[in-house]
Design brief:
- By secondary structure, this protein is α/β, with parallel strands linked by helices.
- The chain has two domains: about 50 residues, Orthogonal Bundle (Helicase, Ruva Protein, domain 3); about 140 residues, Dna Topoisomerase Vi A Subunit, Chain: A, domain 2.
- It is about 45% helix and about 15% strand.
- It is built from eight helices and seven strands, in the order αααββαβαβαβαβαβ.
- Strands 4-3-5-6-7 form a five-stranded mixed β-sheet. It has a two-stranded antiparallel sheet with strand order 1-2.
Length: about 200
Amino acid sequence: MSALPPPLARLIQELVKLPGIGEKTATRLAFHLLRTERRDIDLLADALVKMREETKLCSVCLGLTAVDPCDLCSDPQRDAGSICVVERPADLIALERSGQFKGRYHVLHGCLAPLDGIGPDDLRVAELLRRLQDGSVREVVIATNPTVEGEATALYLARLIKPIGPRVTRIAHGLPMGADVEYADSGTLGKALEGRRDM
């Protein structure tokens, strides 16, 4: 028999499902929420529900947005002739924070990982190739993570894109191998974008 009331135990079980949250942290968070004022709990619950209901994928870049197309894709000041390809929406946000890239983005929603059963058809590659068909894109910057899977994805994309015509570049390896773009600081990401190279 558990010493925890069932609603508290259920909250802990749900919190443990979040990445990086173990049972001790989940318990600490649950007890913190238990001491939090009802109004703040209601605001948190409302934010979670609204996030789930109102966040969608941009029909152009496949990044996260509340309006379609997203602000980055609809901004006439951004260079439509340059597309930066990233693995995940969090990578787009991290690169945008660097302030160095002034073009548009494309989110693959993953990378090639054959051992995990993730192939080209599981990524948003077809949408990227469609964006390149009209010939208006001069450069595709591949900013996949510097992991084995990210490198394989970059090479695969380069082979597909080069025959279409745009210049294909890869962000410089200012990021250490095995690191995630999402967690890099904006200075490192800025230097990596400045030092990109042809593939």
